[in-house]
Amino acid sequence: MSKPREDYLSWDEYFMSIALLSSQRSKDPATQVGACIINKKQRIVGIGYNGLPHGCSDKELPWGKTGDWMETKYPYVCHAEMNAILNKNQADIDGGTIFTTLYPCNECAKLIIQSGISKVVYANKKPGSVPAFDASERLLKMAGVIISKFDPPASEKSLKIDLNTGSISLDSSQQKSISKPNPLQNISNDSKIIA
Ligand SMILES: [Zn+2]
Question: Which Gene3D superfamilies does its entry note (predicted)?
């Protein structure tokens, strides 16, 4: 009897991969973000990426980040989370989870809370204190939304999609655990210095 395949994507890896893939539809030259919403039954009900509103030309509107606000992308771009929520194919996403490639900003946090999503799984967060992310965290925590950093695989795992041949390969390292230094050894070494 043949065995099932052992090298496959976990649920979280699968949903985050879809968010990552969606980010590649973005035309933003600086930041490509993707989002994927699942309902309580682990079914995908919404996908989005950052882009301009429907009918607004990406050739006529600016993509810059600095200078006159009207000439930056900020007043015009819809974030991935917003698009995923607005594009959802199911009215009720209460208790759902949103997978995002970047930590949601405060504006998206409002939409996430109001749509009934109860968990955020994010892959990356900009370092340091950024007001939009600090305010987002404040809102999400206050509303009881669980914020979880995507737990990457213990060993290297990557997907390669070849659009020329229409094939995909999942490459994963055989190394199952990353060895960590023994903290007790460091303490004994440090104690000599203190003494
Ligand atoms: Zn946002």
Answer: Cytidine Deaminase, domain 2 (3.40.140.10)
